[in-house]
């Protein structure tokens, strides 16, 4: 059976790794916080590694799922680093929601060691990870993707080849940028209507039967804003990071993108105001505070 | 049977009036271009009026469906104007996609003559009008809405009371503003991905299975942009007008709305560039031209 | 000697009226707060009026200096209103930093009573008012301006005919809009440099010798921001209002103005955050807070 | 006498190098286009180098003045590259309007060879270069700056130490960003006033006596826009590049900067529309075209 190393047992990494284990792969795991590595190993048959180098030694497929590409890059070097442990011919699958430029640099360094790289960020949240229904956006060689498929299939349902290295990162970032644009602009529109005395339920009812509808108006606002529930499912800090990636891609490609760039600034402001733990939908609270009007 | 006057036989007014006629109301019609008035009368049992005053004389319910509130206001005065013909107790139903401030002024002048007013803009396009499945967004007295319901029901399926006078206009404008924001920002994101070598079909496939999806990504881009069809169903000029209304509502309500205000500027620019006849989705062509990249 | 009525004895109105009195005009004053009217009359030879109507009775020239055009408009009607007291042939000089649309409506109502109107907002602050060195931006008939000149000359040094009614308002609003754009954008640039470790004094020294310089970089930042003095000389709330006027003029004229419109939103946000008493330069505090970096 | 190598004999590099030669330094020059190198050598006593490596061999001070940092970086490697010719202990003075991130990478590579680096972009244009009155913004070690001073003094009058490596680039970029913001926003405001019938001369006369004034309103618009002269002194393409650098610095420093980011998009759009040869002030033509109104 294929030997797999999985690095990064965070909120979404854990259930993804769990599904890899349950699919019968011979799994070694590593997490920055050692306790979490041990807990995972205790709960499965996986081996707990003591370092990135230790984790990937002998692995045919290495999966990383960290916060940023820079975190992945920081694991490469040193005596305990990935490059010290990786064998020629291994396949590196980076499920981090990364940035194309850093991914390209990582891929280049790995290629020099005979290791193939694909970026493979996922969407679908923790519940999608638990149920194995994630969408996986892949950038890199199609042949490398084909080799990764059995592992990806353990947690992903829709596996899409987007293009060369970084294309998976870019598509993920752009999807999330659209989400951010929808959240903020729907907040603006509903705050104005609310102040005018229009019940936001009524407004959403109309919008959701009309041309202005989006996943945000159909699901996020009714379930999270109008109810004041604001569950913490996806951190604003991470969406801010994704917007930064999307904005950089548009600039790199020399595409005029005023709405995208402005929204990146707005979420930077919201992040500074609401802190690290706030959920992405709580960005609406900034509009509400400044408008003096709750959307409820 | 209730006597109804219908003023404004444009692209959407015509099929709406047609359904009013078919529902058996005793109908009088008027259009600025007399030939169109005569054509309509010839095609139905409606009476062709020679002036706004003539059209509304004796009418219990008056329906207007013009380009802007200012057009409606301009029909009020003079010997041939609406105020000269309207009887006390009549009900004025304005289906124009109007602006709340002008609607309020019209309502005030009508009230002084004992005529009730509701703003009742519609969405659903010409096909919705033909099939009687429009959504009608109503602002004004609930009692007035109840009186209007039989007429509205002839062309509308979902009839929603949004609030006081102007609330229907505001909800319509905000829905369309969201549409505009989605069209432009989806264009930005897909142009950047396309330049990077990502097939926009693949990108949309991912987005439409993810959190960034909207009516725009699910329907408008696949059917109209990727195909290069850009059918002319709803004029950019009118969406520009609607954005102006939405932007003014947000300012009037003192709600910070940077994305909405910026998008209003972008569509003003697109309107200046593409002219009066362009479809609203063609705004994407401005991004494509500046990016040097078709989304296809 | 010409009889003059002066309405609005605020921070700038008071010293303007004082100079009118000192120039020897026969002056009657009125202020919403009666105590201030009495204090002014006690300090000069001016007559204290008990109402707007009382103030303007017999006046050949009426000067208003209120917060907004809406305040001026609100004084027109009623038994105690301006229209009740104004004589045919009088000249109405509105020194309010007003908006062209409301000024036009006021001018129209006054014209119907045979009263000429010019908008004549001023710049130069309280010290300019005290020293009689204000700049006066005039909109309206040149003949009316000529009639007003003797009174304007008592507090103004540079008296500029800008165009028809509303042109003075528009020029004033645009000047202030440029000021606001300079304040905010200089704040952005210096906050970024400061975080990078560049001393903002050094940066301003360079900018003020280069193409990026402005009154804001030459005077406001060195004297008010770097010193942390932030003296309260011109309220942010008023600059927010002026931006609203400038933004509305650009929209009314159908001129794409993304920077102006965005800046209007930013000052709206700063106004909501910093309240009614903050100085206009304190808008920079919002940037500093969000950047986690003082410009000092 | 100190041996100096000067690479990059463009519009501004040529007169700078000329002043270095005239100051008596032993000069070697190199330019990508060999003819220009030969012409310069023929006009002075400078030696014409055949490659970057040849140019810097034996030089104590190397000055580069290229279009972008990437151009400088591209000269480092290879048999004919700078690194092949540079001696330990040399001083590298980069007068390119560069970006801090690339400058830092270049500095790091040079440091590994025992070569000190300062970024030293200039402002003042070709006439400032000819007259030796440029402003030089320096980033890097103060000791290195002191060593460079004699050479810098041959073309610069105001030599400012801004901070560590990249600080000179950042200050230059931010100054130019302010310039760009002023040009565009003044264009918006004057286009709106012009459409309203206000003579832009009158408006500028007022603004230049008031709080909204800037170098742009005092010099650029009166001399270049109102006259329709639009002389080509500084390419829009380069200002677009500088805005990109400034916008990246603000993002890197995590400073919310909506006006800066939006202006970067507007100049990207203007650059795409007006091409490589347009002057930076011609950005105003985009506003004029969309507004249907010349500012004249």
Question: What key attributes describe this structure?
Answer:
six-stranded parallel β-sheet, 296 residues, alpha/beta, homotetramer, 9 strands, N-(1-d-carboxylethyl)-l-norvaline Dehydrogenase, domain 2, Rossmann fold, three-stranded mixed β-sheet
Entry summary:
By secondary structure, chain A is α/β, with parallel strands linked by helices. Chain A is 54% helix and 14% strand.
General description of the model:
The structure is a homotetramer of 296-residue chains. By secondary structure, chain A is of the alpha/beta class. Chain A folds into two domains: 3-164, Rossmann fold (3-Layer(aba) Sandwich); 170-291, N-(1-d-carboxylethyl)-l-norvaline Dehydrogenase, domain 2 (Orthogonal Bundle). In chain A, 54% of the residues lie in helices and 14% in strands. Chain A has 14 helices and nine strands. The mean pLDDT of chain A is 97. Chains in contact: A-B, A-C, A-D, B-C, B-D, C-D. The interface between A and B is large, with 70 and 70 residues.
Describe the SSE topology.
The structure is a homotetramer of 296-residue chains.
Chain A: E1 3-7, H1 13-22, E2 26-30, H2 34-43, E3 47-48, H3 52-56, E4 61-64, H4 69-74, H5 82-85, E5 91-94, H6 100-111, E6 116-119, E7 122-123, H7 125-131, E8 134-139, H8 142-155, E9 156-163, H9 167-195, H10 200-207, H11 215-225, H12 236-252, H13 258-274, H14 283-291
Parallel strand pairs in A: 1-2, 1-4, 2-3, 4-5, 5-6, 8-9
Antiparallel strand pairs in A: 7-8
Helix pairs in contact in A: 1-7, 1-8, 9-11, 9-12, 9-13, 9-14, 12-13
């Amino acid at each position: 059976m294929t030997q797999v190393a999985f690095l990064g047992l965070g909120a979404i990494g854990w259930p993804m790794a769990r599904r890899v284990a349950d699919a019968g792969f011979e799994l070694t795991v590593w997490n920055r916080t050692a306790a979490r590595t041990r807990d995972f190993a205790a709960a499965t048959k996986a081996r707990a590694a003591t370092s990135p180098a230790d984790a990937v030694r002998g692995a045919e497929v290495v999966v990383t799922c960290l916060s940023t590409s820079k975190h992945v890059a920081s694991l490469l070097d040193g005596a305990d680093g990935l490059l010290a442990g990786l064998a020629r011919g291994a396949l590196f699958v980076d499920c981090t929601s990364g940035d194309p430029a850093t991914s390209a640099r990582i891929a280049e360094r790995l290629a020099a060691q005979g290791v193939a790289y694909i970026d493979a960020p996922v969407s679908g949240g923790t519940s999608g990870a638990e149920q194995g229904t994630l969408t996986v956006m892949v950038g890199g060689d199609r042949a490398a993707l084909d080799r990764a498929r059995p592992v990806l299939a353990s947690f992903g349902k829709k596996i899409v080849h987007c293009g060369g290295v970084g294309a998976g990162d870019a598509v993920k970032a752009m999807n999330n940028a659209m989400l951010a644009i929808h959240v903020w602009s729907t907040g603006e529109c509903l705050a104005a209507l609310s102040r005018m005395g229009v019940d936001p339920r009524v407004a959403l009812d109309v919008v959701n039967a009309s041309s202005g509808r989006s996943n945000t108006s159909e699901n996020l606002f009714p379930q999270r804003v109008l109810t004041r529930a604001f569950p913490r499912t996806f951190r604003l800090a991470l969406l801010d990071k994704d917007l930064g990636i999307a904005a950089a891609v548009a600039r790199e490609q020399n595409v005029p993108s005023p709405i995208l760039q402005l929204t990146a600034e707005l979420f930077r402001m919201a992040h500074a105001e609401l802190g690290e733990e706030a959920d992405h939908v709580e960005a609406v609270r900034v509009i509400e505070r400044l408008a003096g009007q709750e959307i409820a």
